[in-house]
Amino acid sequence: MPKAKGKSRRHKYSYNLNRKRLYRSARRRAAPRIACSHIRHAWDPHKSVAQNLAEMGLAEDPNKAVPIPKKLLVSGMEVESDGQQPGKKIVRKPYVVNEMELEASLPEKKSNTLSQDLIDYVRYMIQNHGENYKEMARDEKNYYQDTPKQIKRKINVYKNFYPEEYKNFIASLKPEKMEVQ
């Protein structure tokens, strides 16, 4: 049976790779990467993940924390079991959950912005062509060769992101058109 053509290419030795460092880092016990700063500060590296999360009042396995109630059949009638577990765990670090709830209740910042290039492009097209998307598609400033539908979509995105700015821009265009007539 002939040898596969691409097989020899896959196993070339990389001289720039430091294998000693890779081996050492794989041997060390890696601590979990924690994104939440509240959990990171309360984390005890000498305890297991389950023990740390239990102390903070958090669940390691959501399926065990809030089980799906099992329906029991008793003499032809359906009865739901409440799924309560008799043994409650002691929460030693309740401030972690409280801080996380407080952070979650804060209003979210609106970080949606458009690039200045796109804003300038949309304003130029509206200023020169109004609502005529076919003309916009033929314009020399249409560098990306957008179709009329793509241009319309970009204008609608601009309208949704900056409604006040769009209204002011359209209002400022009307006096210019009256002067032309």
Count of DSSP strands: 2
Q: Describe the sheet with the most strands.
A: 2 strands, antiparallel
- Helix percentage range: 40-55%
Rg, Cα atoms, Å:
31 Å
Element string (H = helix, E = strand): HHHHHEEHHHHH
Which structural class do you get from the secondary structure elements?
mainly alpha
Uncertain stretches of 5 or more adjacent residues: 79-84
The figure for the number of domains is: 2
Q: Could you tell me the mean pLDDT? A: 81
GO biological process, one term: ribosomal large subunit biogenesis
Subcellular location: Nucleus, Nucleolus
Pfam family, one: Nop16
Protein name: Nucleolar protein 16
Defining key terms:
181 residues, two-stranded antiparallel sheet, 2 strands, 10 helices, mainly alpha
What this model shows, in words?
The chain has 2 domains: 19-67 and 88-105, no CATH class; 116-177. It contains 10 helices and 2 strands. Helices cover 52% and strands 4% of the residues. It is flat and about 70 Å long. The protein is mostly helical. The N and C termini lie far apart (83 Å).
Layout: helices, strands, pairs:
Blueprint: H1 7-10, H2 19-27, H3 37-42, H4 49-56, H5 62-65, E1 71-74, E2 77-80, H6 94-105, H7 116-129, H8 133-138, H9 148-161, H10 163-180
Antiparallel strand pairs: 1-2
What's the gist of this structure?
This protein is mainly alpha-helical. It is 52% helix and 4% strand. It folds into 2 domains: 19-67 and 88-105, no CATH class; 116-177.
